[in-house]
Amino acid sequence: MNTKRFETVLSALCAVSLALSIGAGCSKQKNETTMEIKGPNVEIMTLHPTNYLGYVEVVGNIESPATVEFQAQVSGYLKSVSPKEGFTVKSNELLFEIDPSLYEAARKAAEAQLAIDEAKSAHADADLRRGKELLDQEVISQARYDEYDAAAKECAAAVLSSKAKLHSAELDLSYTEIRAPYQGLLGEIKVRPGNLVNSGSTTLGSMNVTDPMWVSFPLSEQIYIMSTTNGVFKVTTDENGHESFKENDADIADIELVMVDGTTYSHKGSVFFVDREFSAATGTLKVKAKFPNPEGHLRPNQFARVRIPAATYTNVFVIPQAATMQVQSITMAYALGEDNKVSMRPLKVEHTANNEMIISDGLKDGEKIVVKGLLKLRNGMTVTPVTSEESAEVKSGVPQKEASNS
Fold this sequence. Notes:
This protein is of the alpha+beta class. The protein has helices at residues 2-38, 101-136, 142-174, 221-229, 388-396, 400-405, and strands at residues 41-46, 50-63, 67-71, 76-81, 88-89, 94-98, 177-179, 184-186, 196-197, 203-208, 213-220, 235-237, 243-245, 256-258, 270-274, 284-291, 303-320, 324-327, 330-336, 342-346, 348-353, 356-361, 368-372, 384-386. Helix 2 runs antiparallel to helix 3.
């Protein structure tokens, strides 16, 4: 009796277990089917046509418009130096002073000698005038008069020589003061007060013009042709006949400078020099642009990327380069259909810059493409599209509205 009851209970438990297993299997199959229909999450963007100014970037070298190396033009002991080492100095500001004592004495000696020679010349001129009167009266001979004439000319020449020596002494005295030829940045000073400096051999220091600064860069023939077509290197002539390169146009922006940290320099520049010929060795054309530098952020021999307007594209789509893939040299993207199925779409690329692609054909206004999650997709797959905002919410775990309110 007990055995039969145990078998009955065991049979009932097995039946319940089988039912639960079948139910769990159905539920799992249902969930897998739902997940398959739902598909993986992918980030999408909605497309709208726009106009785009295409740029190209080339590496340029920043240089000063003028650099001066200061050397002593007279010898002597250095009396003083500018306290603005490493700072901006103004035009004609005193930078170095050599002890002027010897040169002041030399100037005074030259002035004294000039006074002596002028006095002698005046006396000789008076003798010549009296000699002329005596010659006319036939009191003296022509030979004697010629002696007066020669003496007067010799004294006049001595005056000219003394004036030249005085001018030379004044120049030497002026060379004891070395002043800034223009406003710029004073570099390292090589000598200090009390040092003996020698004419033509002692380097005192250097300075650069820092505002504006020049950026020199090579331009390939292809980029040059593109930029010329859009007027960047167009030469214009003003009413006075002065030629210059066209700096602005209704559709062309000024040249920009991208620093090594990826930031864009706050001031825009303009081309002022294009070399007369392409280099036979490199196949490039040397170009220079000038950039304002009022804050002094640019320094000579820095490197930066020069961003040049290349072409204007109208009614195109601008998409991230990461949203595309190459299939047998054809650029493709995943377009999202109404049923959330993705399909590969060939694209016509006009320009690529700054991790963006300019598409002129293959996309439509209002269409959506996948911009993130391409690697897990295949043609015809059903996906779950999310916007960039929704994707950010998933990553942070905080809805964007709550994040903005906080």
